[in-house]
Amino acid sequence: MFGITSWKLLILLVAAMVLIGPERMPEYLEKLRTFVRQARDMANGAKGNLKDQLGPDFEDIDWRQYDPRQYDPRKIIRQALYDDEDSGEPTEEAPYLGHDGIAAHEDHRRWDPDRATPYDVDAT
Prior knowledge:
This protein is mainly alpha-helical. Helix content is 44%, strand content 0%. It is built from 3 helices and no strands. The longest helix is centred in the N-terminal third of the chain and has 30 residues, at 25-54. The two termini are 45 Å apart. The mean pLDDT is 77.
């Protein structure tokens, strides 16, 4: 959790006890417990609201597909440029287009600083 090992967590707890002191420790523990309860209640309330609004479709949703850690910006850009969702590479149906809109040869796929950047005429 957050890259904190059990030893680091133990050291943080001991440091907190030393800094806060034994007199104020119960007060801060109560505040922490109240905060955790409120956060859990808010999360459960949001989940309940979402479940009510989506109805029976809520159980069918694959939540892992919405995880932002799985997205690769390079793949998304390749898919947008080449309109190929599988590989991100040019295909027969969607070949790599040069700056003049004519399909380029295999050797022109490499970056060339003298060549204009390809663009989608319909999007610009």
